[in-house]
Structures are given as C-alpha cells and as structure tokens.
# Entry
Amino acid sequence: MKKLVLILMMAGFVIPATAQHHHRDKADRSPEKRIEMKLRKMAEHLNLNDEQIAEIKPLMEQLQEKEEAHRKAGKEMHEAFKADLAEVLSDEQMEELEKRHEKRKHKMREKRHQRRKDKAQAE
# Structure
C-alpha cells in the first residue's frame, strides 16, 4: 500500500513537469519542424498516401508564409498606432497606458499558465 501511495505521489510530480517540458519543446521547434509534425499527424489521422503528402506540404508552407506576413503586418500597424498615440497623449498618459498594458500582459500570462497547469493535471 505504501508503495502504491509513493508511486501515485511521484506521478503527480512527474506528469506536470513532463507536460511543461513538452510545451517548451513545442515552442523551440523551427517552422520546418512544425510543418513536418503537423503533416505527420495529418497523414496518420487521415491515412494520407505519399502523393497527398507531397501535395499538402507546399500548401502548408504557403500558409505558414502568409501567417508570418500577417503577424509582421499586425506588429507594424500596432507600432504605427502607438507612435500616433504618443503624438496625442502626454508623457504621463503614455506611461500610464504602458503600465496598464504591462499589467494586462502579466494577467494574461498568469491565466495562460493556470490553463496549462489545469490541463496537465487533467491529463
């Protein structure tokens, strides 16, 4: 009985750590590796043949390029908006806006961390 309790306790510590490690690995993958992973899973779930895989891979690469361009454009628009705001708002108002933005980012990070933690515990 003691061994069973010990094993369950160890599993409670190891599983969340493994889940967090997996998430870090996911963030460290190159775009090419992410495409390969997605394609492999898609092929597995849909029983794709080699010809289909060969046709889908360039489509995924094109999508990835478009998504990256979209992210870059969004970032540029945000920076332009911020510059325009700086012309209208006082320095104190800009500082307050930045503080509020940082506070919101921190709160979102905490929520995201909690969701990951809850998900790892559920698994």
